[in-house]
UniProtKB/TrEMBL annotation:
GO terms for molecular function: arylsulfatase activity. It comes from Stratiformator vulcanicus. This is Arylsulfatase. Transmembrane segments: none annotated. It comes from the Bacteria.
Length: 465
């Protein structure tokens, strides 16, 4: 039996009752969350990419549900992952930017909630929410097993000299002559590609956990650039079929990275079928923010943000609206598409509902379960609104409510920009002057959503992590 529970939300969201659906399996489903890094809304075939193919992810969409209006937690790495793990938006979550502050003991992650509900939990890839020896390391935040990078700077380097297994460094057979104190740099001897190790360890975790409910958070680094590599930052072992294309070298690298990502998503799905746990497992695939112009890559070359305006670090749609696909054979209708607007913070309530986990009522979450949408039910509650803050480049804020999207940039700008996303997905036409009442409402939502923090002040220049 799934336990009835209640999440107490902040003023930004209505209180949502997490009740069990009659469509849920009697046993707790395995939950796999695959998070790509800097993958744009237009970088997949099923979202319109035509320059290269992503057959396994497209197949996943054909066997499951594609979200058209799904959002990351932020427009850069660490805060987006904080929103995902804690179910709180960037107006009051602990980590609101790429500075290396850790989660603290009082923070509650969805991994902890699932662990308490009897799940074996594993993180493979990039964490970004706590440094070595801090209170924020994965093993202190709900994960039984961890393998990968602790911070985003180290994760730039695809050929590092070390990675972490749980709380210990393990050596990796690469040579990085200019390696800095955080493990960043560019390798002179490239023997072991970190993504391959991460994928193998994730597959091993599935194999070892097949007889118990598990939560796998597979936070791969593809297709992020190695920022320390300059114009040669799209590090990949083999350009494969793209080696002879008449493309700039970084674009070949991006395509090869996304192809490798696609292949390994397929390997996860194949592993579930091999172990005969396909029908017991929900798999979600998305990206932590929009596409980048780093490592020599130019996002416009492949139209990586599709019809959207803006890139990583923007709060226009291209910076935060991301692909999202969910697959659960026998539970999620194959080939379905939804325009339900949701975001990373909603994963907390969704995973809790699917697992029957008990959630403390006083967490102050900004989380609305989208399980009813996944399961084709008609009683999907809508988020009152979605909210983002960003603290670099002078700071900016954004809020979406229904069809309306408002942005204030810089942080203390006198006027808001307002867009009707139903009619103007590219945010080409600022209609603030035509709708003063909507502008006033959006200003009120921004004000009530922001909780000041001594750690986070708008900055005048970007942190390139």
């Amino acid at each position: 039996m799934f336990r009835h529970s209640m999440i107490c939300l902040t003023a930004a969201f209505a209180v949502v009752s997490l009740t069990a659906s009659s469509l849920f399996a009697a046993d707790k489903p395995n939950i796999i969350f695959i998070l790509a890094d800097d993958l744009g809304y237009g970088d997949l075939g099923c979202y319109g990419q035509t320059n290269f193919e992503t057959p396994r992810i497209d197949e996943m969409a054909g066997e499951g549900m594609k979200f058209t209006d799904f959002y990351a937690g932020s427009t850069v790495c660490a805060p987006s992952r904080c929103v995902l793990m804690t179910g709180m938006h960037t107006g009051h979550c602990r980590i609101r930017g790429n500075a290396m502050y850790p989660l603290e003991p009082g923070d509650v992650t969805i991994a902890e909630v699932l662990q308490d509900a009897g799940y074996k939990t594993g993180l493979f890839g990039k964490w970004g929410l706590g440094e070595e020896g801090s209170t924020g390391v994965p093993n202190k935040q709900g994960f039984n097993e961890f393998f990968g990078y602790l911070n985003q700077h180290h994760a730039h380097n695809y050929y590092p000299t070390f990675l972490y297994r749980n709380q210990e460094r393990i050596s990796v057979d690469n040579v990085v002559p200019d390696e800095d104190s955080r493990g960043g740099g560019v390798a002179s001897e490239k023997n072991v590609y970190s993504h391959d190790l991460i994928a193998e360890n994730a597959l091993d975790f599935i194999e070892q956990s097949k007889d118990e409910p598990f939560f796998l958070y597979m936070a791969v680094t593809l297709p992020h650039a190695n920022n320390q590599g300059g114009p040669r930052g799209m590090e990949v072992p083999d350009l494969g079929e793209f080696a002879d294309r008449d493309w700039p070298e970084p674009q070949k690298g991006l395509a090869a990275m996304i192809q490798k990502l696609d292949t390994d998503v397929g390997r996860v799905l194949d592993k579930l079928a091999e172990l005969d746990i396909d029908d017991e497992t929900i798999v979600l695939f998305t990206s932590d923010n929009g596409p980048h112009n780093e490592g020599g890559n130019r996002s416009e070359y492949f139209d990586s943000n599709g019809p959207l305006r803006g890139l990583k670090r923007a709060l226009y749609e291209g910076g935060i609206r991301v692909p999202m696909i969910a697959r659960w054979p026998g539970k999620i209708e194959a080939g379905s598409v939804t325009d339900h607007a949701s975001y990373f913070g909603d994963f907390f309530a969704t995973a809790a509902e699917l697992s029957g986990a008990s959630v403390p009522e006083d967490l102050g979450l900004d989380s609305v379960s989208f399980a009813p949408t996944l399961l084709g039910e008609s009683d999907q509650p809508e988020s009152n609104y979605l909210y983002w803050e960003f603290y670099e480049q002078g700071g900016r804020k954004a809020v979406r409510k229904g069809k309306w999207k408002a942005i204030r940039q810089p942080w203390d700008a006198e006027k808001l920009e307002l867009y009707n996303l139903r009619e103007d997905i590219g945010e080409d036409h600022d209609v603030a002057g035509e709708h003063p009442e909507i502008v006033a409402e959006m200003e009120g939502l921004m004000k009530e959503s922001h909780v000041p923090s001594p750690l986070w002040k708008p900055k005048g220049r970007p942190n390139r992590n």
